[in-house]
Amino acid sequence: MPDNHPVKCIPVITVPKDASQGLIDRAKNTAQQWRLAFAENVSQGLVLMQSEAHLALKQLNEPKVGEVLVDFASDALTFRRLHGGGKKEAIAKAVGLKGQTELSVLDATAGLGRDAFVLASLGCCVDMIERSPVVSALLADGLMRAQHSDSLASWLPNRMVLHHGIAVDLMGNWSHSVPDVVYLDPMFPHRKKSAAVKKEMRLFQQLLGPDEDANALLAPALALAKKRVVVKRPAGAPFLAGQKPQIEMQGKANRFDVYLIN
Q: How far is residue 156's CA from residue 190's CA, in Å, rounded to a whole number?
């Protein structure tokens, strides 16, 4: 990553500003691990805020927009895990969980890890690839805190593993267990601003922009997966790389394109 890459300009700061030396050291370690900068006296722009509780992405000059963090024990994810429909969920059907006791999935566009978490909660072992160091830092923080959660510690750490890097490169040189399923959910450009676009997505668009190289993901995914490749797309979006899937699972806002491996 070049030194003038926009992500390089996103600093890690501490909250509160008069933090303990222990918290400052923790923030500096986070910055060093993900090749970001540690900064003090920052009052505007996107930052990673290190507090005693968690690491979070925040737009300092938009106080009404909340912080973004990875919390696998959140009320929303807990409700979905317990009452979301289980293997009847669309994503579970798309990856082929019906009748499967164990399924290995590679989520090559992990983002905040929510789809990976749902699959892991249904018994899948999920490897996650995330190329952004900022998003990877948020994911790593969420995984670390899950190790100390009463409801997650007994299973989540064994089912979700983070890999930081470029998905096309990692899939082409995959040195771990070959996944049954490769799951792709590349960022898609929104045509217009909308209040319905969640705060996380607004910040992510500002941080990352759309995946301009998304089409390049399909070929290595098809070459790697044992059973199928599943691509999550907005309902009206074109097929990834212009390649028609064998199965289209249509939803109101999104669809799952399923490519079966012969």
A: 32
Half-sphere exposure of 4 (CA within 13 A, CB side): 0
**Encoded tokens for 245:** 């899937």
pLDDT tens digits, 120-146: 999 999 999 999 999 999 999 999 999
Contact 142, 71 (CB under 8 A): yes
Alpha-helix runs per DSSP H in 34-122: 75-83, 90-95, 114-121
Are 236 and 180 in the same domain?
yes
First vs last C-alpha separation in the chain: 37
CB contact at 8 A, 93 and 86 = no
Q: Give dist(CA 58, CA 67) in Å, integer.
A: 5
Name every residue whose Cβ is closer than 8 Å to that of residue 154 and which is 6 or more positions away in sequence.
none
**Domain carrying residue 30:** 6-59
Is 128 among the domain residues? yes
- Beta carbons of 187 and 200 less than 8 angstroms apart: no
Does an H or E element contain 254, and which? strand 254-260
Tell me the per-residue pLDDT of 5-19, one tens digit each, with 9 for 90 and over.
Answer: 445 579 999 988 788
Q: How far is CA 223 from the centre of its chain?
A: 22
Residue type, 119: L
